[in-house]
Amino acid sequence: MQCSDESEPLLTLQEQSDLINAEFSPPFISCDPKLLSIFVVAFDTRAGNVVEWNYPESYSLAGVEFKALPSGAHNVQHDIMIFELANSFGLAAYIMKQVDNTAERGARMKSVGVISSNYLALFQHEEKLVELAQESVERPGAYEQLIQYFAEYNQSFSVPVSLEMKSNTVGSMYDLFKSQGVQIFTLWKMLLLKKRILLQCTPPISRQCSYVLCLAALCHSQFTQSYPLFYVTVNDMTTLNYKQSYIACSADMILKTKGSQVYDVYVTGSAVVDPQGEMFPVTRGDIIRYNQLCGAVDKEYGKKNTSEVDRLIQGYFSVLTRDLFNTLTNLVTGNRPLQPADLKDIRLHNSDLPYLQTLVDKLGYDVELFSPSCCEEHFSALL
Fold first, then answer.
1. Cα dihedral sign for 272, 274, 279, 283?
2. Fewer CB within 10 Å, N or C, the chain?
3. What's the pLDDT score for residue 315?
4. pLDDT tens, position by position, 70-83
5. Confidence of residue 308 (pLDDT cuts 50, 70, 90)
6. Please, how many CA atoms are within 13 Å of residue 346, restricted to the half-sphere of its CB?
7. How far apart are CA 368 and CA 82, in angstroms?
8. In Å, how far are 83, 134, 235, 308 from 67, measured between CA atoms?
């Protein structure tokens, strides 16, 4: 069996259309959206980042001052941060206001945020937190509205919540797809392998936090899930070191130098590299799949609203993931080896066999793969 040329389609035009337009129902996750805390973090010219105020006072917010007010925040007027904090999650709105006083060195920087047990419950608070952050820099020391919002919300919240793209992230999946190019398939493969993925970012942080959510949605299925940490700092090094799998972003460049201590995959711009700084190889199959999906997005959905484009991309990868794991499971239960026809059914290419072997080994599946001689060089490069 010979390797296919980059222009050879993995699927017929009808099969491509069926895959791209496949019915896709995003997973719904029931969670307790109750707020655990509300807080104000500020920059003090003498003490640095400080927790200015929090409610209730008994709730521990250790380390939140560095996540809600990230490195480089002084370079932007406003931002949104999402982060993990002691097994819960936070969302904070940051505002910088120019002031005419020497004590604050001409700038007042504050973030107002909330903590919840599930990150999906946080997005509904973004608009209100921006409003409260603006109020906080205009009227320092006035916390009555924050207490009122906390109390009123906790008396009226509702469930469930969906992992489908939230309104504040509309367009993020498309942006991620376009910015990463064919490497989006590299990231998909690394997600299925449950690798530790760290994205480099600089303020504003909000876009990269949205990318983390997009990557989590990219591989979310009944077979596999990822663990988004969102924004992390150098203070999270211990956590990153013991986590076996995560997706996160950081503006702390020192984390890049720590290599395999804290990550398996580092993303800077469109470059997806390993801890040694080497680019992960792109396969012929990656190129074919990217061209198929890119053509569908641009031609069939380019003129529609961005939420539909996001849903298309998420659905495409979800169907790929579902079919891949269904086929591997059937091979195991049927006690039979992978055949070329199976590879085509799961939209993979001969050049993807090294990765597939790695995935099978990772899962502990007893599946025999065929190995065309023309692909032997690829196996040795990746295994």
1. negative
2. C
3. 87
4. 989 989 999 999 99
5. confident
6. 22
7. 42
8. 7, 19, 9, 32
Q: What is the DSSP letter of 2?
A: P
What is the value of pTM for the model shown? Answer: 0.88
SS3 114: strand
Nearest-angstrom CA–CA distance, 176 and 179: 5
User: Both tokens of residue 237?
Assistant: 């090094």
Helices 306-334 and 172-180: angle between axes, nearest 10 degrees: 70
Residue 370 and residue 347: Cα distance in Å, rounded?
16
Q: Which residue is listed with tokens 């640095």? A: 48
73, 59 in Cβ contact below 8 A?
no
- Distance CA(374)–CA(3), nearest Å, equals 6
> Which residue shows structure tokens 């005419």?
100
For 258-280, write each residue's pLDDT tens digit: 999 999 999 998 899 999 999 99
Structure tokens at 135: 């109020």
Q: What is the pLDDT of residues 344-362, one digit of tens each?
A: 888 899 999 999 999 999 9
For residues 240 and 227, give the distance between their C-alpha atoms in angstroms, rounded to a whole number.
12
For residue 275 the two structure tokens come to 């801890």
* CA–CA dist 197, 189 (Å, integer): 12
Exposure letters 217-256 (e unless 16+ CB within 10 A, then b): bbbbbeebbbebbbbbbbebeeebeeeebbbbbbbbeebb
Q: Is the pLDDT at 10 greater than 50, yes or no?
A: yes
Give dist(CA 148, CA 143) in Å, integer: 9
Q: Which of 215, 222, 162 is nearest to 191 (CA)?
A: 215
Q: Which residue has the tokens 């007010």?
A: 69
- Cross-strand bridge partners of residue 249: 199, 231
Question: What's the rounded Cα separation, in Å, for the pair 96 and 14?
Answer: 53
**Residues 46/182, Cβ–Cβ less than 8 Å:** no
Strand intervals (E) in the chain: 28-29, 35-44, 48-55, 78-85, 88-98, 107-116, 161-162, 196-200, 228-231, 246-250, 265-268, 271-273
